[in-house]
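Appendix B. Chain record.
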Amino acid sequence: MPELPEVETIKNTLLPKLVGRRIMGATVHLPRLIKRPAAQEFVSLLGGKEVLDLSRRGKYLLLHLSEGYCLVFHLRMTGRLLYLPAAAPVDKHTHLIIHLDNGEQLRFHDLRTFGTIYLVREGELDQIRGLACLGPEPLGPQFTPAYLKEVLAGRRTTIKGALLNQELLAGLGNIYVDESLFRAGIHPARQAASLTGEEVARLHRAICEVLKEGIRYRGTSVRDYVDGEGKAGGFQKRLAVYGRGGQPCVKCGATLEKVRLAGRGSVYCPCCQPLKCDTK
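Structure tokens predicted for this chain:
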């Protein structure tokens, strides 16, 4: 699933191409992906709108349109947003085509069809449940060591599960949680409330560093992710633990182990990320 750095990269690549463009119409090939409004009304409302700006909230991409509307995409597992010439062949997994006034197109492609699309007024964004319940942005001013310590206090879940909770922190997923915990030297199965003040500070710093690096290297392409121009990211070449179970640790050479936590596979180094006895 595209996470914060991937969606941020998609936003950055599409921003100069879409801002100022007018939407001439839309073609919907899979109506069930349009969650609000119904597909026919969606197409009718979208026509004629100008793209004013793009932004990201957690893993959601928002296109701010004229007349107070906002087009919201959640890419989920395999969603792609691609800016392409109208003459480009249409892939069978392309479910929405937005026709622009310069003859180019914005296409939504989704192999697994788990993605969701909404067209709402700016004042109605809180009616998209997943968007309304998001916690602070991990690269925003609200995400401080004090905030992280507060939300972890009293939580009996694993630290891996806590960091995946979008209501506590927006935009983190399996890749960047594993990488952040490795960099902070914290076992993913540790109880969230067991972290010391010093460990929380390390984790806060690691999360910010890993996400900034993920954005700098234009996201992680391990399966389906490409940016708005169809280009793969580069952070997969810098992964220390994610997807590397059974391989040697880049720091100490120990064999990386893989366990299942919070319904997700988690890779860690048993030497660099020891599970303390008092947290079992």
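Further analysis of this model is presented in Appendix C.
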